[in-house]
Amino acid sequence: MSAPGDIPNGVAKGLKHLDLDGHDLPPSPAPSTPTNGRKYALATELVYTESNDQFNSSSTPIYQSATFKGGPGQEYDYTRSGNPTRTHLERHLAKIMCAKRALVVSSGMGALDVITRILKPGDEVVTGDDLYGGTNRLLNYLRSNNDIIVHHIDTTNVEKVKAALTSKTAMVLLETPTNPLIKIVDIASIATAAHAANPKAVVAVDNTMLSPYLQNPLDLGADVSYESGTKYLSGHHDVMAGVIGINDEVLGDRFFFMINSTGCGLAPFDSWLLLRGIKTLSVRMEKQQTNAQAIAEFLENHGFKVRFPGLKSHPQYALHWSQARGAGAVLSFETGSIALSERIVESTHLFGISVSFGCVNSLISMPCRMSHASIDPATRKERALPEDIIRLCVGIEDLDDLIADLSQALVRAGAVRLTDNGFQALSAEEVEGESRSTVLVMDG
Ligand SMILES: *Cc1c(COP(=O)(O)O)cnc(C)c1O
User: Fold this and answer.
1) Beta bridge partners of 419
2) Strands (DSSP E) along 232-357, which ranges?
3) Residues with CB under 6 A from ligand 1
4) E strand or H helix at 35, and its extent?
5) Known catalytic membership, residue 168
């Protein structure tokens, strides 16, 4: 896979471990280097596992056991502390995430809980202003109950981030692309600045929107890469999981201490489901982002304001492609009117109304009404989150079917005006007329 357009190949930041030649990572759980010494590419590593199973099972067995018999010194004794299915998954993920160590827990928010437990009262956190709703909620809790000082900054502006960094900055928490505004954050520059302000600062990147298939925050200078395994890694919306990747051994041990102490390690069956999902990550992601690119272009060509890093019109297109290998499959667009957006969302058939993303099925939502509803309206306004924004999470369905579904929804919702060669988004004045007539209808 290569960056589209004008981004020169191979010069991108953070692609040191570019997967054309594979990478030098711990085995998962057995060495995966072919005999001639050439390293496997990521698409191969995703499906390749070699285990020392006593029956040579092709699928890693589910060790559905809370305890393991035997005396002290044996590898496993209690599943809260360790389980062979979970270990297999963790080693497999470490390789895929370009991490020395990976840990898996019961959800993405569980991962952030583990990470933020290293914070002490008085510590400062510098983070974004377009965060995942759950992340925002947890940070608010830490602020009100644990005396953690949280600075919400527009992290797309490195200078603003620098101004907020001090020797008291204990953690920098980034998401890129953000969701649903699809803003891009310069991981490498911010990581460098954070470590300059405080060498002990932990830079943690939420990589959920792209997955390790498209972006490796650790290669860009982050200390922690974490993500919700509920999304792309598992891919079928049938399991919840959280994944943490680290290179620093001490940090890894501190996180493991928390997981063992609180018991949030991923259960054996869920570990197995996640292992199964990871095998198809490359085919799913390739298809999903190809579909997403076509849909983003379709909407843009019909006059909508679309946010997607695969579009040249994205203001941070070059930055995105300097640190990622793909655009992902989440995009958002605006209609100018909450009522119009609501009607569009209600008029699709293939795009299911649902929070979340990363699933093989296409989804549609209004973040202000759903995933981001936990952010109060005043804060949403302050952070310029348009109330009418529609988020599309594109799946692996047939592209023509998806575009036909979206087209009929736009027409039925009255979001477009018919033209000689198809349709076009309404102008601002037309949108205003639409909203007014809606109000009239509703009043009547
Ligand atoms: C879903 C999500 C999370 C939380 O993950 P869960 O598995 O739902 O707990 C965190 N960050 C982002 C960006 C997400 O999309």
Assistant:
1) 422
2) 242-246, 305-307, 330-334, 352-353
3) 107-109, 132, 134-135, 175, 179, 206, 208-209, 228, 230-231, 240, 242
4) none
5) no
Return the percentage of the chain with pLDDT > 90, whole number.
72
Measured in Å, residue 364 CA sits from the centre of ligand 1 at 17
Other C-beta atoms closer than 10 Å to the C-beta of 414 total 20
Mean pLDDT of 63-76: 87
10 pLDDT above the threshold of 50? no
List, in order, residues 6 or more apart from 50 with CB less than 8 Å away.
Answer: 29, 30, 31, 32
* Integer CA distances (angstroms), 344 to 163, 341, 444, in order: 41, 5, 22
Task: Provide the pLDDT for residue 271.
Answer: 98
Please tell me what DSSP assigns to residue 60.
P
For the chain, how big is the Rg over CA atoms in Å?
23
Residue 200 is a catalytic residue: no
* Number of residues in the chain: 444
Half-sphere exposure of residue 191, counting CA atoms within 13 Å on the CB side? 20
Q: Which of 13, 80, 100, 117 is catalytic?
A: 80
* Domain 281-443, CATH class in plain words: alpha beta
> According to CATH, where is 3.40.640.10 located in the chain?
4-278
Residue 294 pLDDT > 60: yes
CB contact burial 322-345 (16+ within 10 A = b; e otherwise)? bbbbbbbbbbbbbbbbbbbbbbbb
pLDDT value for 104: 97
Which atom of ligand 1 is closest in space to residue 208's alpha carbon? 13
N-term to C-term CA, the chain: 55
- Whether pLDDT at 3 is above 70: no
Average pLDDT, the chain: 88
- Distance of CA 149 from the midpoint of ligand 1 (Å): 22
Residue 378 has a pLDDT of 79
Report the C-alpha gap between 117 and 300 in whole angstroms: 43
Mean pLDDT of 264-291: 98
User: Amino acid identity of 198?
Assistant: N
| Type of residue numbered 254 | R
Kindly report the number of other CB atoms within 10 A of residue 357's CB atom. Answer: 27
* Per-residue pLDDT at 31: 43
Confidence of residue 74 (pLDDT cuts 50, 70, 90): confident
Architecture of domain 4-278: 3-Layer(aba) Sandwich (3.40)
CA-to-CA dists, residue 9 to 13, 38, 315, angstroms: 11, 21, 20
78 a catalytic residue? no
- Spot the catalytic one: 86, 91, 95, 231: 231
Q: Which pair of tokens denotes residue 78?
A: 């209690």
